[in-house]
Amino acid sequence: MTNCTGHHERGETLVGLLVGLAVGLMVLAAGAQMLTQHLRSHRQNLQDSHLQHDLRSALDWMARELRQAQYTANAWQTRSPSACDDPFCDGMEDFSIEDDWIDFSLDRNHNGLQEDNECMGFRLSDKVLMARRTCSGSGNWVALSDSASLELTALRWQLSCELRQGWLHRTVRISLSGQWPGDASHPIDLVHTVHLRNDLPASAQALYCP
Q: Model confidence over 109-130: pLDDT tens digits?
């Protein structure tokens, strides 16, 4: 009887050990799953933060350039509510918007003459942000982003015009969307409104604000 009882007690201990081990493995598996989810969420948050930073940097840079559209140092001599007689107010290269494409010019060296490097523009090409650098030819477009690290999926320009005491005041709303390459699950959309500093004569409305 003593031996049988001893064997029976050892059997219960083994069963308890196995049950405890099974419970421990279940807890460990649940903890590993929670840790994996936490790491995945942390990684996604970091990616979203980097993506938003890159998009914001691109948007802010475009806004700074666009804000100076059609600036010329001699505007006080060449522009009035009824006329615009300078090289930065006489063609579509000076300001135009079409789909995801914008063109504009500005007097970078403040001499009142439009030189070849004083035309600017932005557009998307194969999910890459492109910038125009010259007035001549096709415009000498250069890439500002890399689709291997950032895919830009949409770029939109919305122009609003308002007449103020014979002058045309313009506002451009820029919308930029992007995602990580090949990952459309977490797109980010940003919007920025730019008030153009250089008002135009009301007579230019038909050309630049149709």
A: 999 999 999 999 999 999 999 9
Q: Are 70 and 96 in contact (CB under 8 A)?
A: no
pLDDT score, position 178: 94
Q: What is the rounded CA–CA span in Å between residue 189 and residue 186?
A: 10
Q: Which two tokens stand for residue 112?
A: 């009142």
Mean pLDDT of 153-181: 95
Answer for the pair 59, 190: CB distance below 8 angstroms, yes or no: yes
**Secondary structure (DSSP) of 181-208:** TTEEEEEEEEEEEEE-SS-EEGGGHHHH
Per DSSP, 72 falls in state -
Strands (E), 35-166: 79-80, 83-84, 95-98, 101-105, 119-125, 128-132, 141-143, 151-164
